[in-house]
What we know:
Shape of chain B: globular
Strand content of chain A: under 5%
Radius of gyration of chain A: 18 Å
Helix content of chain A: over 70%
Largest sheet of chain A: 2 strands, antiparallel
Largest interface: A-B, 40 and 42 residues
Strand content of chain B: under 5%
Number of strands of chain B: 4
Oligomer: heterodimer
Radius of gyration of chain B: 21 Å
Order of helices and strands of chain A: HHHHEEHHHHHHH
Structural class of chain B: mainly alpha
Largest sheet of chain B: 2 strands, antiparallel
Number of helices of chain A: 11
Strand order of the largest sheet of chain B: 1-4
Strand order of the largest sheet of chain A: 1-2
Number of strands of chain A: 2
Amino acid sequence: MLAQQLANGVVVGSGYALAALGLALVFGILQFVNFAHGALYALGAYVTLSGVTSLGLPYALAVPLAMVAIAAFAVACNMLFFLRLSREGELGTILGSLGLMFVVVDGIRLLWGAQARSIPTPLVDTSVDVAGVSLNGQLLLGVGVAALLIGLVFLLLNHTWLGLRIRALAQDETAARLMGMRITWSRHATWAIAGALTGAAGSVIVPAFALQPSAGDSIGLTAFAVVILGGLGSLWGAVIASLTLGVLESLTEGYIGSGLDEIVAFTALVAMLLVRPQGLAGRAA
Amino acid sequence: MSVDRKAGALVVLLVLAAFAVPGLWGDDAYTMTVATLVCLNVALAQSLNLVTGFAGAIALGQASLYGIGAYVAGLLTTRAGVDPWIGLVAAAAAAATAGALLGLVTIRISGAYFTIATIGLQQIFQAILVKWDSMTGGTQGVVGIPSPSLFGKVLEPGVGFYLLALAWAAIAVVVVLRVRASRLGAELVAVREDEAAAQAAGVRTTRLRVLVFTMGAGIAGLTGSIYGAYQSTIDPSVFGLTLSATVLVMVILGGRASVVGVTLAAIVLTVLPEELQSLQDYRLVVYGLVLIALVVFLPTGLSGLDRRLRQRLGARRARGAGAEVIA
């Protein structure tokens, strides 16, 4: 019983980490408070649905399709208006991304309809049993993809030329500009990576649940919770916060009652903001 | 001072015009519904104007304070048989207490973190409303909330309820106008612009913040209790992010701390969606695009537009005057 709940918690937590990766980049590096994050996640799931059902692609190809589509969408938004929003400071990104959230969520409803759909994948109806613990195949795929992408993002940020640029942007935009760095391209690149990660998250996690236009609303806010809990700008902090939250929610569900996950997540968030505003792994400002 | 007097005169004119609404547009049920909602939204927007416009804290949880008011009054009147008027006062008191706590607890949280904390608290509030079934009625909510009665007559939705909402909206506007004209308003603006400098000048910032949060929440709570009595049914779905975002947009579109601008924005943003029924299907898409365009093209809101126009006119006039001198 306890083993099962801990395993469930790790699986759910990996999902949070995967869903939060894209937000951790744009919030942590570009200081862009993106309330449309959950909407992009849902959009990724819908692109996957169309890839599988309308285009007849195998699921393994529909996932990269969603990654490319959301990356392109994020870069297009960045070219069109994200920079203008950033210029108005936090208020600008808060209001502008809220606007984008309304556009995307309602756009999904207009394009695909409001009824609940399901994405057929080869793993949805499978399950794996190990030592008395039973886990859904699709959710396990989520754990694998989460581990893979977190590793890739870590390598990208710390061991590549592009990563160096992105980290420079996070540290001091003006200094980076003065060193002759082309800020605009680094911003586009950051959005492209964040979009691809968010698209991947939506297309891998959502099939395990019902797909609705509002599929990303709650997880978008949970992503904020884990990014802040982990400490802004700290990838590992966000991962640890995700796993902790997943296990905490799973134990709450097992021993106290169901439907309390939002209360657990946001109580942890508000408590953290009060006690340690810089998060688990963040440095004091 | 003269600006305040002008704003006051405009408010009096608006209220007089509002009194004529039933006569001019007709007192049919539809017109009265829209007019009542306009008044409630004006009061709610002013409550957030205190917190966001004056204290500079971008809150995205005003709907939960509105909801606390609606639920406290709704539960007291339906479960405990309390008189609706006392329910309204209790609602305001409960929400004001919540607002004071919010102001105190979030004192160290600034910027986007504060915004996210208010969203978090709102999610918790909504989750509690759904989960605490035995008390709140769960997703079904509270039904059969009684209306207050005036001169021995129960107020019915229609002209009577509209006038109650109008009176309350007028009170809320006047309270916020008075705050702006007072020493309190000057201190608030000083803190918003430079907290350290204001502290050095002797402004007691904590007390100020708690005071303004309490007032804002109290107004929001009382407005919520009127909403509950008007609808007679409330459920958790109303008191979420969409309403909070709409109210925040009213304050930003109106121009932060501009009482008249926020009032006009609340009127426009309530009437416009009702008039665009043919666009109903695209409503949120249009709303989202307008929101983005607003930040990109008009970051200081309507009152900023007014100021910008005046500056431009002033520049032209100055140029004209200069030309005359040269001539």
